What does this fold into?
Amino acid sequence: MTAPITRAALLVPRVNLPGLVAAVGLLAAWQVLVSTGVITFVFLPGPLAIAGKLPTLLGAATFWQDYGHTLTYSLAGWGLGAAIGIVVGSALGISKALREWTTTSLTVLRLIPAIALLPIAALIFGLSADLELALVTYVATWPVLVSTAGGIEKVDPLLRDVARTLRISRLRELTQVVVPSAIGPILVGLRLSLSSALVLAIVSEMIGNPAGLGNAINMARNALKPELTFCYIAVVGVTAVALNGIFNALSRVLAPGGGQR
Amino acid sequence: MTVRKWARGLVPLAVSLLLWQVFGRDDSLYFPRPSAWWTAITRQWADGSLLRDTAATTGRFLLALIIATVVGALIGFAMAEHRGVDRSLNPTFEFLRVLPAAVTVPIFVLMLGYTNQMAVTAIVFASMWPMILATRRAAADIPELLRDVGATLQLTRSQVIRKILLPSLFPAVFLALRVAGPITFVVTILVEMLTGISGTGSAMFLAQQSYQSATVYGLICVVAVMALLVDAGAGGLERLATAFGGTRPRRRAA
It folds into this structure.
């Protein structure tokens, strides 16, 4: 069914030439429009000016501190949220009664946009790192919770019967049979919550905890340094793509075939 | 889900709110009780600010959703119809798509200032991606047979687009609204909070800055109701779309 894979095809990555040309073309057009003064937005620098600022930014120690802060809190909140999501989601997936008695409440809570809770988090935690961690954890919990509950609910009852027949304990049944068979949906939830975690970390740094990349973006904008603002945005974009890529690579290694379902 | 099951599921939330009401206090800085939220919201209603803010948010949300739908559907359609367009735009889009809305807002602020135009542009930019993806897939899935019918009937290119292709895309567009609607609403609130442009998002933030806790909780309830309405509306469109698209062949045989 599949085309024969030659050694050369494996070694040379396929380059999407039109895609590359279009991306470069768009950047060139942007540069030309800005340098010739056709576009008259006050604070729109050309790509060359932006690229020129990038080495300065990447060479600054404060940048790496900000970057480390944002990454640490995104990943910490993601991890916490994922743990809560998997535990609560498993409970919901296993127990029909629990599901029946909570689904509507959870749906109502889930529909409230997480950012709408930022003002409350700011009241409770103050403008602190706790606010950021709480909000990132909260937003990261939901996708994992929902997909874990859904995935476990759909686990083949036969598998669980086998576990019962083999008389393994409930805990082993959960950790060795139920959760592994729901790994596909769980991975989907984890991936969704990873990107939300990064977003909420940056948002809470912009309007809550004055630290990290979010705060740095604010300062660059307020200081009317558009080149710097664009640099930060490029950095965040690359980080988002990279996190997604690393997650996909890891899930392919750790749970082969799991993410494809 | 039956009404009874639905009501049963609401019990934990209702009991928590009830306990909160019984044991909470009106003047608590962190956890004012629900009756205080109601008082705060009726005060906002009386001075007209509640209506003004929710109207601004709703209008901004609907305008952005309509623009995102039209622009997204057109781009998605163009990408599906022309393989060259698809291959050219894909890498750029893959990058732009993952940019969190929060980080692109400062760029639009720098370009357009703190204006409603900026807010709508930023919201559209963040919420048109699901529409592009859904339309692109749907347009690629239109059966060859339908196009052949157009050729047999000797329709012109524009007639084919108008009479065959666009109608085949409607279900997909409605289905994509199921995803795009809630995203657009969240981004609307986000942009209002980030830029202070008047609306429910910024009202919430103002209340927090002046430590009017009860107002913050009340406004969160308002946002929750709006989000529920958006979700219900999107769900309705989804049912409409499946009713429309149910008889159509789903996919060409590979």
Notes: Residues 61-94 of chain A form the longest helix (34 residues).
